[in-house]
Amino acid sequence: MAIDVLEAAHRLGLSAYGVSFHVGSQQANTEAWDGALGSAAAIFGTLAERGIQLKMVNLGGGFPTKYLKDIPAVESYGRSIDAAIRRHFGNRIPETIIEPGRGMVGNAGIIKTEVVLISTKGSDETTRWVFLDIGKFGGLAETMDEAIRYPLATSRDGDEKTPCILAGPTCDSADVLYEKTPYALPVSLEIGDEILIEGTGAYTTTYSAVAFNGFEPLKAYVI
Ligand SMILES: Cc1ncc(COP(=O)(O)O)c(C=O)c1O
User: Domain limits at 17?
Assistant: First the structure.
């Protein structure tokens, strides 16, 4: 497909310049670029045989932010990508660019939220439901499938903890942040307490709905 598109572009008089890919966001595997670079090199080779000299590979984003789990050091990504480029392109190293997103700004943001309700769903249910004033529609869209688990901080973090299901404030039944794997939060947590959601510098304000359920979009303050 990429070969056909680049060849068609060339035929139409455009400059077929290179290949872009993205290996998947929050990429914890430092070797993930290897396969894509192999494919890119194959595209370069095929097009060179047809007289089209590509010049650039855009390595995309994917560099992770530290949430709850540790992530590899940025240097190990550099070393692995450098080795993969040399392995697949030999002496004909192309121009390269990267498009880091969350890896660059994820840890630059914190969301300040408030507990608006704490409840249990029935008399025989012990797991607490903690409702925040922000949910999936207010900027935490990346909690979808509980894929991104943000670190949470409260002023009661030294207290005994209990598993809690975390939910947002809207009436939408999808507005549950963490249920499959509940969060351990202080038993002393009360309505009105502040919770800081860390690592929220990427994919939060930009995902916030305009006014779903009457909630204002997430405000951002740049310090
Ligand atoms: C084309 C493109 N490049 C780069 C990025 C940044 O990705 P990441 O935040 O995983 O580094 C994205 C994210 O959506 C993207 O669509």
Answer: 2-104
Instruction: State the distance from the centre of ligand 1 to the C-alpha of 109, rounded, in angstroms.
Output: 17
How many angstroms separate the alpha carbon of residue 117 from the centre of ligand 1?
Answer: 35
Each residue's pLDDT tens digit in the chain (223 positions)?
899 999 999 999 999 999 999 999 999 999 999 999 999 999 999 999 999 999 999 999 999 999 999 999 999 999 999 999 999 999 999 999 999 999 999 999 999 999 999 999 887 788 999 999 999 999 999 999 999 999 999 999 999 999 999 999 999 999 999 999 999 999 999 999 999 999 999 999 999 999 999 999 999 999 9
Q: Which atom of ligand 1 is nearest to the CA of 26?
A: 10
Do 100 and 129 lie in a common domain? no
Q: How many CB atoms lie within 10 A of CB 109?
A: 20
Any ligand 1 atom below 6 A from CB of 101:
yes
**In a shared domain, residues 88 and 6:** yes
Amino acid at site 55? K
Answer yes or no: is the C-beta of 99 below 6 A from any ligand 1 atom: yes
Number of structural domains, the chain?
2
